[in-house]
Design a protein that fits this description.
Length: 132
């Protein structure tokens, strides 16, 4: 989490922010220094992105060998999940779902309505292990 003044400082540094998006009355960032800290600690960064342009910006803006996993759910599953959040912004969330295109390229695609969280994580982890 960043305070607005911290975000403003990052915006002044070329290449510091790989992706920025405003949605649901919030601003979301993928910052290079945050990813660098994870890699330096030997942890694998997991980045949740909802736009093709965001995936392209992060994958293209770093030298890492990313595994791109597209997670999706059927409309009825999404509707149930959005309503169960009770955040009061269901219309905005449904609109975001409608605007979100499927990734043209992904290493693995997972229907989250068909697999548990653990099963999905196992699929991704196995895929990562198969990479050179």
């Amino acid at each position: 989490m960043l305070r607005e003044d911290q975000a403003d400082e990052l915006r002044k540094v070329p290449g510091a922010i790989l992706w920025e998006n405003r949605r649901y009355s919030a601003t979301y960032f993928v910052d290079r220094s945050g990813l660098d800290q994870l890699w330096a600690s030997s942890r694998v960064p997991i980045v949740h992105l909802g736009q093709i342009e965001a995936v392209d910006a992060v994958v293209g803006g770093t030298e890492a060998d990313w595994t791109v996993a597209e997670l999706f759910a059927r409309p009825n599953v999404l509707a149930e999940r959005i309503q169960s959040r009770g955040t009061g912004d269901e219309a905005e969330r449904f609109a975001a779902v409608e605007q979100t295109l499927r990734l043209p390229v992904a290493d693995v695609r997972i229907d989250t309505g068909a697999l548990s969280i653990r099963e999905a994580a196992d699929v991704i982890e196995r895929h990562m292990g198969d990479r050179p």
